[in-house]
Amino acid sequence: MNIPRTRSALRRRPLLLAVTTLALLAPLTACGGSDAAEGDGKTLRLWHYEQEDGALSKAWDAAIAEFKTTHPDVKVVFERKTFEQIQQNAGMILNSDKAPDVMEYNKGNATTGQLAKQGLLTDLTPLVKEHGWDRKISESASVTARYNDKGEMGGDTWYGIPNYGEFVLTYYNDDLFKKHGVDKPTDFASFEAALAKFKAAGITPLANAGNDHPAGHWLYLLALSEANNTWVDNYQRYLGKVEFHGPEMTYAVDKYQEWLDKGYFDKKDVGLKGSDMVEQFVSQKRPIMVGGNWWFGGLTTDIKNFQWSTAAYPGSERTLGSGGNNWVIPTKAKNKKLAEDFIAITMSDKIQKLIGEEGNVPLAAKPSDITDPKSRQLTEAFAQTQENDGLAFYPDWPVAGYYDTWVAATQNLMNGGKADSVLDELAAPYDKYVATRP
What we know:
The chain is of the alpha+beta class. The chain contains 19 helices and twelve strands. Strands 2-1-3-11-6 form a five-stranded mixed β-sheet.
């Protein structure tokens, strides 16, 4: 699932710039002037696409500073790219003599998996074993770092190292809970009890948006509450047959329809975008928002007049999410050992703690290490999800173009569509792809 380009998210995402392959192939420039001799252990060429004021960029800046301290004779040539630059041109760049030594690259079969299949990425499995990162990163968080010979995630070979995670969790307006005498949910029964109590007070409890990812996220989350890891692997990794009219997806559409009928969702939200959903929460029109941790940083800035908190969604041990984007080392990198040293620094306790303090989700830090109260809550919720092996990826990942199908299907449901028609709508492109995949 692509992180939405919305008001809050844009603070942390690269600007959408139109660039050409020629711009990427041009001689690199960065702090310190022209490149030193390459391949001699004296130059580290590094690319990433995190926005300058974001939590991850701050962490990577600190990692670069640490690297310079531990490698005083090495010059760091850093290039901040846009997500689109690397996404569109990575294959060409990594197959040329302009490949960096280490770079951030998007996770998934069509990105890291595709380059690994083409032989453009270094096998990092020995490095993982040497440092014990397979013990620091949970099984579910590492799935998008590991690929098989077909370039499909979840294989045995590590081609990337994620340093952070992402997941869907619950945001609560604590003041509204207190004002209306509603107890904070601890399980699904108390969650539904809270929804009912808010509705009885004349408040639509759940923020939502039908013309964007949130409504589809809700539908998948409800299915996950009835699913096990085998179902997730079958759906996401094609390891077995997925029956869309089975108990998992049938429960999801039925429960979603029930909540629509009870007024826990507002049917009028069918045309809203993700930013509208966030505004419902920020403006205190809706006391509960279930959404990605990518909204967290914007909320800390936008919310001025009420107390709020976060927690893992109490209705399911599994939620949408994955390990973050990967640090990869191109096969044609000239200074792989330096790249390995840099990745090791990003996995250090110091940098992992900084990721958490800045409001993102570190993969290898304990919640108790984080001093900021809200950031610690976020890290605790992610830790709980990891303990349950509960990162279940995103509903649109298995099929190219499937995101639009999920949006259309959930809008159909919100507009009164029958459960069977919604399930058929979701099944058609999935079943077609699985039947024809190599």
